[in-house]
Structure formats: structure tokens, C-alpha cells
Design brief:
Elements lengths: L6 H17 L5 H7 L17 H14 L5 H12 L6 H12 L4 E11 L2 E10 L6 E6 L3 E4 L5 E4 L9 E10 L2 E3 L5 H37 L1 E2 L2 E2 L4 H29 L5 H25 L11 H13 L4 H11 L2
Keywords: FAD, Flavoprotein, Oxidoreductase
Family: Belongs to the acyl-CoA dehydrogenase family.
Pfam family, one: Acyl-CoA_dh_N
């Protein structure tokens, strides 16, 4: 089915998500479940919508636009995506149901973990939404270890972006509930997980940049100097044009990466391009937004600092722009 056939559905999903997130920046897990967002990519036979990453990407962009604080990334997008990479099993199906229906919450953890004699050891840094998760899915070279938080050390890690909840997860010979095997080659599946995570962050950064452009243009229309809107000044127009170009290029790169993930294709190149460009662009656009708002842009009341901090953290999560460009260079050698 052609992508444009989903346009109307995506527009409706975008509108509903925008309205919900506009009411409250902090959205609890129960509200995400009630909205049906956590189960978008869960098979319909297991209580989900049976949708694709294309629909998840719509929600991710709107979350970025609202700079929303919630557990959607780690407990739905990454955990659900990881389960889709595993072999069919009763345990996997039960975990899928957990993602779709709650009330318990999962967390996907990518780090340096090894399994030895039914126990797992290792550590991961800056894990999204690990604090408060009921079960953690630790990715190893041979499969995914399902463990409860008891026995693990889950320590919150303060970051510049206060809308994110990141943590360090340490396992020291922790007993495993279950080990789930990947449906295909473990190395390829692990790479697919990382590509998905990179694209998810790119979607969020696209939302951040788009919202900063919208907010800036709206402000420039009403702020007057010398008897005219400051948006009418040539230098300001040029700055806004640069912001628009950055957002539109980001949108195209993100769309290609989302399509690759949705089609279960090799998304490595598209993900690296989208992540590196979009996350840098979001920082630049948010910085320009702060400048173009003038003095008020540097105040807490404007809220622009929230978006700038989120863009700055997104730039580092799941591979910095430099690391992504290095991956691209290695592919083309």
C-alpha cells in the first residue's frame, strides 16, 4: 500500500496527539496506554493495533513538539520494537500484552551484558525510562534476558534535559527470568534495534525543530519595533528561511529513515543520515529561536530553554552526529 494512502490517518493521529500533549507536558504511562499509543506496533491478536513504525513516528514527532516528559521512548517504542525482533514464544506474547495494556512497564536496555550459567552481568549507561520499570529486557550477544529490577542496580543519571528520565543499569550475576532468542541473526537484530532508536530520536528532534520554527514565526508577527513587525526585517527573514530549510531537509531524511524501519529493511544509512543531520539541525534551530525572541527568549517564561536542552541531549543519545558520520564513512569505504 502506498505511503500516501495513510496520509489522512496520520493527519488525524497527529491532531489527536497534539491536542492531548498540549494539555499536559508530563503524561503518565496509564494515559499513554489509554490513548492506544503503546500498542501501536503490537500485533492486533495480542491487544495492539498491528500498525507500523510509521504511525509510531507520528507520535514521536508530536512528543518532540510538546517537549513532553513521558516513558514512551524506552517502554513502548524501544521495548515494543525489541519484542518484534524476537522469536515467537508465550513469554514474548505476554510481554507484548504488557506493552499494549499495562499496567506494568517494560524497559529495553542496550549495553555490555553477557549471560553465564543462567545469570547476566554487565552495565549500560543513559538508559531511557529504566527507573520504575517492572521488567527490564537486557540485550546480549545471544539473546534478550528478561529480569526484574530486584537484583539490578538502576541509578538515575541527571542530564541537561529535565524532560528525560535516564539511568545507569548494572547487573552483577543477576538471575534471569527468561532468555528470549532473536528471530534472525543476533548481530543484525541488535543493529536494527540501534537503528530504530536513532530514528526515534531523530523524529523527536524533528518535532523540536518544527515547534521552534512555528513559535518563532508566530512571535515575529506580533513583536513590533520601529512601528513594524520585526519579522518584516530582511535579516530576520533570512534567519527564518534558514530554519525552514533545516526543518524541511530534516523532514525528508527522517521520512526516508522511518520508511526503511517500517519496511524492515537495512536502515543503517538512512538512520545515520537522519540522526546526524536532524539532531544537529534541532540544536541550531532552537538556538536561533532563542536569539530571534530577543531578551524574552532567555527567560524561563519563554520555555525555549526546554527545547534547546532537549535538542542538545538528543544530539548525544544513541550515537552523536560524529559517530553517525563515521558509520556512514565506513560503509562507503
Amino acid at each position: 500500500m502506498a505511503a500516501d494512502e495513510f496520509t489522512e490517518f496520520h493527519d488525524e493521529l497527529r491532531s489527536v496527539a497534539g491536542d492531548l500533549l498540549a494539555k499536559d507536558r508530563e503524561v503518565g504511562w496509564a494515559m499513554l496506554v489509554d490513548a492506544g499509543w503503546t500498542g501501536l506496533e503490537v500485533p492486533d491478536a495480542l491487544g495492539g493495533a498491528g500498525a507500523t513504525f510509521g504511525e509510531t513516528a507520528v507520535i514521536l514527532e508530536q512528543i518532540g513538539r510538546a517537549s513532553s516528559a513521558n516513558s514512551y521512548l524506552g517502554s513502548a517504542v524501544l521495548a515494543g520494537g525489541l519484542l518484534n525482533l524476537l522469536q515467537d514464544s508465550q513469554i514474548r506474547d505476554e510481554l507484548f500484552t504488557t506493552v499494549a495494556d499495562g499496567p506494568s512497564r517494560l524497559c529495553a536496555v542496550a549495553g555490555d551484558f553477557v549471560i553465564d550459567d543462567g545469570r547476566v552481568s554487565g552495565r549500560a549507561e543513559f538508559v531511557a525510562d529504566a527507573v520504575g520499570a517492572d521488567r527490564l529486557l537486557l540485550i546480549t550477544a545471544t539473546g534478550v534476558a528478561v529480569v526484574p529490577p530486584t537484583g539490578l542496580t538502576v541509578q538515575a543519571q541527571p542530564v541537561v534535559d529535565e524532560t528525560r528520565r535516564l539511568a545507569a543499569v548494572t547487573a552483577d550475576a543477576v538471575e534471569i527470568d527468561q532468555v528470549l532468542e532473536f528471530a534472525g541473526d543476533p548481530a543484525a537484530a541488535t543493529q536494527a534495534f540501534h537503528d530504530r532508536a536513532a530514528v526515534a530520536i531523530a523524529c523527536d528532534s524533528l518535532g523540536v525543530a518544527a515547534q521552534m520554527l512555528t513559535a518563532t514565526v508566530d512571535y515575529l508577527k506580533v513583536r513590533h519595533q520601529f512601528g513594524r513587525p520585526i519579522g518584516s526585517f530582511q535579516a530576520v527573514k533570512h534567519a527564518c528561511a534558514d530554519m525552514l530549510v533545516a526543518v524541511e531537509v530534516s523532514r525528508q531524511l527522517v521520512a526516508e529513515a522511518v520508511g526503511a524501519v517500517s519496511d524492515n529493511a537495512d536502515a543503517g544509512v538512512a538512520a545515520a543520515m537522519a540522526k546526524s543531520y536532524t539532531c544537529l539541525a534541532a540544536v541550531d534551530v532552537a538556538g536561533k529561536a532563542m536569539q530571534l525572541h530577543g531578551g524574552i527568549g532567555y527567560t524561563w517564561e519563554s520555555g525555549i530553554h526546554i527545547y534547546l536542552k532537549r535538542a542538545a541531549l538528543n544530539r548525544s543519545l544513541f550515537g552523536s552526529p560524529a559517530a553517525q558520520r563515521q558509520k556512514l564513512a565506513q560503509r562507503y569505504r
